[in-house]
Amino acid sequence: MPDRSDRVGQQLGNYRLLRYLGSGGFGDVYLGELVRTQERVAIKVLHGRLTDSNDLKEFINEARTFRLKHPHILPLLDFGIASDDLPYLVMEYAANGTLRERHPKGTLKSLNQYYNKCRAHQQSRLSHENRFTSRQLDRMTTKRNRRVDSYLHTASRRIIDLLVEEGIGTLVIGNNPLWKQEVHLGKRNNQSFVQLPHARFIDQLSYKGKLVGIKVIVQEESYTSKASFLDHDPIPTYRADRREQRVFSGKRIARSWYRASDGTILHADINGSYNILCKSSSDPWQLGRGVAGAAVRPRRLAV
Question: What's the pTM value of the predicted model, to 2 decimals?
Answer without folding.
Answer: 0.54
